Amino acid sequence: MTEMTLLAARTIRTLDPAHEGDTVAVADGRILAVGDRADLIDAHPGAVVDDRYADAVLLPGFVEAHAHSIAGGIWDHVYVGYFDNRDPEGRVWAGCRSLESVLDRLREADAALDDPSAVLWAWGLDPIYFPGERLVAEHLDRVSTTRPIFVIHASLHLATVNNALMRRAGIDADTLAEGVPKDGAGNPIGELQEPAAMMLAQEAAMGFFLSLVTPEATAAYGRLAANAGITTLADLGSGSIAGDDAVAKWQRVVNDESFAARVSVFHNPGRDGADGLADIGELVKSRKAESTAKLRFGGVKFVLDGSIQGFTARLTEPYLDGKPNGLWLIPPAQFADWIRPVVDADLLLHVHCNGDEAVDVFLDAFTEATGGSPADDHRTTVQHSQLTRDDQYRRIAELGMCANLFSNHVWFWGDQHVGVTVGPQRAAGMNAAKTVLELGIPLSIHSDAPVTPLGSLHVAWCATNRRTADGEVLGETERLTVTEALHAITLGAAHQLRMDDEIGSITPGKRADFAVLDADPVDVGAGGLRDIGVHGTVLGGVHHPAG
Ligand SMILES: [Zn+2]
Prior knowledge:
Blueprint: E1 5-8, E2 11-12, E3 23-27, E4 30-35, H1 37-43, E5 48-50, E6 57-60, E7 62-64, H2 70-73, E8 78-79, E9 85-86, E10 92-93, H3 99-112, E11 120-125, H4 137-141, E12 149-153, E13 158-161, H5 163-169, E14 191-193, H6 194-198, H7 202-211, H8 215-228, E15 230-235, H9 244-254, E16 262-267, H10 280-288, E17 295-303, H11 335-344, E18 348-353, H12 356-370, E19 381-384, H13 390-398, E20 402-405, H14 409-421, H15 423-428, H16 433-438, E21 443-445, H17 456-465, H18 482-488, H19 491-496, E22 514-517, H20 521-524, E23 534-539, E24 542-545
Parallel strand pairs: 1-5, 2-6, 7-15, 8-11, 11-12, 15-16, 16-17, 17-18, 18-19, 19-20, 20-21
Antiparallel strand pairs: 1-3, 3-4, 6-22, 9-10, 12-13, 13-14, 22-23, 23-24
The structure holds zinc ion.
Zinc ion (ZN) is lined by residues 66, 68, 236, 448.
């Protein structure tokens, strides 16, 4: 007979009205019952009472349905982002609030490197916070004129490099490539835009991206999860799962008991182009058959456009100041053909659409690929959905699709959206979570880590407060209640990953996955959600303390 544990807490928020109590009975990694401590002890006299969380609050483990596993390994490189951020070991890195502090952080890292020819990699930079001061190679030359330096921006779509790196990579006045802007004298300024341009600095770019998918890097993703109370993560496309090596890596890391989360790994065929699509249904179905309790395959992710703060998202109305429209990462006219094999195989289809023009393309393509009558319960999801219009949400509802909103944007870039990208009116309607709920569309909200830090309570705080970093409230009618936000970061996300039958609430029969918090979000209220301390998680009955 397996052992039963009665896990006692100060408060349990089950998010399942049919089951309430201060104690949960767990055996074999599953929830057996929820109830009052004394009643459960009476009912199960042989059970072990575990009081370690007697002063803590249990919620269902949070579910992050849009983040990237590279959020773990990226911490091997120097963080130069604007906001404070916490690494997988729990250390808080202060944000770099000026270009000079970015350079200071890089100088420290340069001095700490032994090998004088090793590339210095850094990440998290967002030049939109330093208006009027475009970061160029000469800035980085003030850190080193001999060591190659590669700084990838927060969006991961652009990099800035120094002259030593350009010399080594042979990027110069003769380089004729898209995404390599030049100064008045015809010399490259040090910015490499989008992957093709970054790959001109092949040694540095490949070294960077390969470092993010090692087993050690992936293991760090699990530590970030435990620190945030998250027990199920998506990896929404860090690459292809066509190769056996990639799948073996996932199996070795995630199936190990020390790894602190379940992971739903989405196949991202975008970079293979149309050639990679022919067998996509068969490929992902065969991977799906290799799923375990912790490691899931069966989703496919496409990226239609770029980022709003990078001016590469596709909009139907122009950006402010007449900036040109963004970029298509997939030719719109082909998109129905791209998604048809995924739809036909009834796999999860999640598509990155930041701008409303991208949403139009997705909705048209999905309508075409399904003949306008999608399969039941398909859970096709618009990812980010930041500028989706009301008329588009009505179509999303009619097609039975889901929406996963990038609620963190209001805090991290809300002021820039008001002043620099789309203006106050569109900014107030961004990430319109209340509209989504009012139309009955299944909702989740996300961090897109490492673009913003992994942290469901922070995402919930953003969705309930809609405050910008400068303290403005953007679109107050779109604010969620605390209960709605908690649903979105648990059951709502689980639904979009097709895992709501086994996770997302504290319900008998579901997996024993819990977030262990130092305060009750319902008591604390919207204003304090992001300040609630996380003690760690329980995953299938196994304890993972925060780092
Ligand atoms: Zn993403």
